[in-house]
Design goal:
The protein is of the alpha+beta class. It has a domain of 120 residues: Aminopeptidase (3-Layer(aba) Sandwich). A five-stranded antiparallel sheet has the order 1-2-3-4-5, sandwiched between helices. Helix 1 crosses helix 3. The longest helix is centred in the first third of the chain and has 18 residues. The radius of gyration is 15 Å and the shape is globular. It starts with 6 loop residues before the first strand and ends in an 8-residue tail after the last strand. This is GNAT family N-acetyltransferase. Keywords: Transferase. GO terms for molecular function: acyltransferase activity, transferring groups other than amino-acyl groups.
Length: 174
């Protein structure tokens, strides 16, 4: 059985998804604006399937998405991790936050921890993320992480995206 490790940063804990996180998924996927780049908005049962997918991904591939919680109060603010859907050309760093937690640097902080995990624990030389042209916020985040466009590719869903390479970030201060 796969054990999903916790990752910790200065302000965040990234932990395994659990059944009670369904409320978080339901809230995120009900928001059309926030979940639009993730297949949303979705009905409640579809959001539940996303949670199941995220858990199953760990067990089938040995990596996946974490729930992102604030250390100070344990509030779950979103999700971040790496997925590789069957049929897609490569793995992808992905993240999402509830609207009220955007703009605080949580996505960047969580993404750096996930990239570090991929490079140090999984021994990957780097991580990719796939960005739709209209997702300007994600593009800015990828660039702030040191990402550079390495190719443009049409994915199985018919959408052509820029593929960014994301290098391993510098070690966090002690």
């Amino acid at each position: 059985m796969t054990t999903i490790p916790n990752l910790e940063t200065e302000r965040l804990i990234l932990r395994a998804p659990e059944g009670h996180d369904f409320a978080l998924y339901r809230k995120f996927y009900a928001d059309a604006e926030g979940s639009g780049n993730y297949g949303g908005p979705l009905r409640s049962d579809e959001a539940y399937r996303k949670l199941c997918y995220d858990l199953g991904h760990w067990y089938l591939q040995g990596f996946g998405k974490w729930i992102v919680e604030r250390r100070e109060d344990g509030v779950a603010v979103g999700g971040c991790g790496i997925v590789h859907p069957i049929g897609w050309p490569s793995h992808e760093l992905t993240w999402w936050l509830l609207p009220e937690y955007r703009g605080h640097g949580y996505a960047a902080e969580a993404s750096r921890a996930v990239i570090r995990f991929a490079c140090q624990t999984l021994r990957w030389p780097g991580v990719e993320t796939h960005l739709r042209d209209e997702n300007e916020a994600a593009r800015k985040l990828a660039q702030s992480l040191g990402g550079t466009v390495i190719r443009r590719e049409t994915f199985p869903d018919g959408v052509t995206r820029d593929v960014f390479a994301l290098p391993e970030p510098a070690a966090e201060p002690a």
